[in-house]
Amino acid sequence: MKKLLLGLVAAAALAGTTGMAAAATTLRVTLQLPIKHHLGQNMLAFKREVEAKTNGRIKIEIFPSAQLYKDKEVPQAVSSGAIEMGIASLTRFAGTVPAVDIFYVPFMFDSPQKVKKATLPGSPIRAKLDHAILGTGARVLWWQAFGSAIILSKSTPIRVPADMRGKKVRVFGKTIGDTVKVLGGAPVLMSGSKQFLAYQRGTVDAGMTGITAVKSRKLYEVMDYMTLTRHADIEFIVIINEKVWQGLGPADQKIIMTAATRVEKELRDKMGNIENQALDAVRSKIKVIDLSTAERDQWRKATKPVVDDYIGRAGALGKALVAAAAKL
What we know:
CATH class: Alpha Beta
CATH topology: D-Maltodextrin-Binding Protein, domain 2
Oligomer: single chain
Number of helices: 12
Radius of gyration: 22 Å
């Protein structure tokens, strides 16, 4: 009898262990940038917190440097359930939600304070966009601050709008492309992971990207000048397939959202220092052009038509967001 009882206890323990293993959930995340980039480090912080607080019941598996999907493929991959989670530039949703490009309208958010207010969870701008994106089948968990947009060029510097005329320019979204067009250039839409080779081979003459990408992607090795136009605020978003999200228990959802809120704020608060450190790291490797107030005013004036183009494409939602931005 004693042996029988011991056997039953052992069997029950084994069944319990097997059940726990079966209940474990792995969430794969596709990331465009190297894990050492601040977006990768931000995701690592999220991973550690979620895995610790769920006692390993939820595991986060990160695939950096576009190993699984290119930036433009991420929205569809997550929405369709091909992968559970992804990190993509906000503008990659412009095909289904054109209004997301509000952050790429030149000089719409021309100070760190305006950016912080606009991206705050629940803000009039952020709430509308998160809701619209949810309609695609992907839920926004948090926004990742990427930093200011700048212009890279080879051989000749770009200091004033007229310098863009006739140049082929790498862009990462429709509205950024409109900016190039109004300045007389030819936009070439291209994923961030393809920049290095494009610059190296001379496929484009110039490119728009973020300050931190110049360091993490070593773009200073293939470009000569970096102009600090800071004409747009680059935002990335971390998304999860909505069906996967609904399949998680309330307790796990709470743990995930608590971690997401914490790492979002942590990154937003230190974004200025991250950009300054990235600039300091590359100043000896690439010629950095700081614009004067008069030169920046030239850029503002030359790119004003992009606002109307954005509203025409984004419709009522875009018009509402521009109005909300004006109140910041």
